[in-house]
Amino acid sequence: MTIVAEESLAPAGRTSQVLREATARAHENAERSAFVADLMGGRLGVAAYARLVGQLVHVYRALEDTGARLTGDPVADAVLDDRLDRVPSLESDLAALGVDPAGEPMLPVTIDYVAAIEACDDDAVRYLAHHYTRYLGDLSGGQIIASRMRLHYGVPDEALAFYRFTGIDKLKRYKDGYRERLDALDLDRDALARLTTEAIGAFEFNQRLFTELEN
Known about the structure:
Heme Oxygenase, Chain A; 11 helices; mainly alpha
């Protein structure tokens, strides 16, 4: 896992800027994975998409179970929101794709990813990194993925519930508010270092997941 040097951190009060800048390279590396390029380019198939969803359901179970245990912590409470919960929609999507949500075994990287999330249940700052990496991505690039799955593979809307956020009418406004809540957190330099290190690691887990899905 990459360590972010202290001097690279932005001033306190700009947590969203710190995260965006610190994770830029890891984010780009994940997005450029061959699996992502092939899936988005229409060169795979519905089965490949279903394999991805089958791994993500484990990741989100860990995210949402850990978040529930952190409820009441001021850092976690800044971002926890039932409207973001994805497990029910992922399970619904898998069923619509003809996959048993309870029968998808975890890949080795998914086991590691889930363990990393669960290890954050005593550190809301590190949990925040995983929350930011997954949910803000779903609210952004996830919308493009849904359109490509419809276009290239004819995935029906009932199998794309993962990308619909019931109760959130304006995604951009919500994302802006999310970043504002991050910026309002009073995090010292040690906390910012833990946050950015964990966020980079989260993107690296996603990159490893895409690599394993290529096989």
